[in-house]
Structures are given as C-alpha cells and as structure tokens.
C-alpha cells in the first residue's frame, strides 16, 4: 500500500474519503484523462458539500484573484516536494 510522505492518511484512499476529492492510487491501466475527470468530479462533490452549490459564473468571487492564490499555493507545494525529494 502506498502511503504519503508524512503518513497523514490511514490508507491510499483516505485522501478521497477525508475530503480532498482526489484519488492517490489509480489502477495502472487507467488513462490520464479518465483520472483527471474522476478528480474533477470529486472536487465538484467536495465543493457542493462545502458551499452548498457547484462552482458557477457570476458568484460574486474574483476568479482571477482565486486563481492567483491557488497558483501561489501550487508553487509552494512544488518547492516543498523538490526539497523533500532532495532529502532522500
């Protein structure tokens, strides 16, 4: 069973069960597009549960600012991963 680097999750499916809406351990025969679609559906379910509605245009949020903040988070995760892999 694959575990995350910090052993945060009880098992390989916990990321989905714990509310992140993504699967960490796909079957080897699945294609990337199907995996991305499954993750998108998971994120849709998560958003629906968290906000009570799906993501929609004209919801009063600043989409460009939201994207910028998400990209800043993504860059930090990339750097964190690079540092962790460099430690091995």
Structure, described:
The protein contains 3 helices and no strands. It has helices at 14-20, 32-51, 63-87. 0% of the residues are buried. The chain is flat. It has one domain. With 88 residues, the chain is mostly helical.
Features of this protein?
mainly alpha; flat
Rounded to the nearest angstrom, the distance between the terminal CA atoms is 20 Å
Report the mean per-residue pLDDT as an integer.
Answer: 80
| Rg, Cα atoms, Å | 16 Å
Number of strands: 0
Residues in helices, as a percent range: 55-70%
Largest sheet: none
Total count of domains? 1
Structural category is mainly alpha
Query: Strand fraction band?
Result: under 5%
Low-confidence stretches: 9-14
Order of helices and strands: HHH
Count of runs of 4 or more consecutive helical residues: 3
Shape: flat
Summarize this entry quickly.
With 88 residues, the chain is mainly alpha-helical. The protein is 59% helix and 0% strand.
Give the topology:
Blueprint: H1 14-20, H2 32-51, H3 63-87
């Amino acid at each position: 069973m694959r575990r995350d680097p910090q052993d945060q999750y009880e098992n390989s499916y916990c990321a989905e069960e714990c509310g992140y809406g993504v699967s960490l351990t796909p079957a080897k025969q699945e294609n990337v597009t199907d995996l991305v679609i499954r993750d998108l559906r998971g994120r849709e379910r998560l958003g629906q549960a968290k906000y009570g509605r799906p993501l929609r245009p004209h919801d009063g949020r600043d989409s460009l600012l939201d994207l910028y903040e998400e990209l800043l988070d993504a860059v930090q995760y990339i750097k964190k991963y690079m540092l962790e892999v460099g430690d091995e």
